[in-house]
Prior knowledge:
Alpha-Beta Plaits; 4-stranded antiparallel β-sheet; disordered N terminus
Amino acid sequence: MERLVPHPPQPTITISGNYRGNPHNPENIPQQVGNNPNTSLWITNLPSQTSHSDIFSSIRRIDAIKAHHVNAPNDTHPEACAAKLVFFEDAPAERLLNIARAGQFIVRSQAATAEWNRVATREDPPQGRSRVLRIEGPLHVVNQVILEAFWAQSF
């Protein structure tokens, strides 16, 4: 029988008043876990025009991403973006954290910084699940311009 070692007590974390997601979705509620096995990183020092694809291009071959969100520049940080990245497991999160600490996490030619996100997320190994869609078809139908217009209209 596996023996569970409890994590040290943590302060209760509330959702920020700046949060724009659904605070009632169980996936968005802060979880009480220590830094390990936290799978959630807070990424800062991103260029102001950083996109999702910029981040994905910079973390290729790290591992599967469960969720992410890019925060646009604001009054407090008008020249930079920030992002939350959630992996399915803690090892890839720790790997990216170490890459960032070594100054090698480069997004749009700028070294990004990373730290454990204060709103932790437990491991949730994908076990064959995927949220990736692979869409194939003729180029005149399946291309970025047409698909982006479709998603914008449909969702």
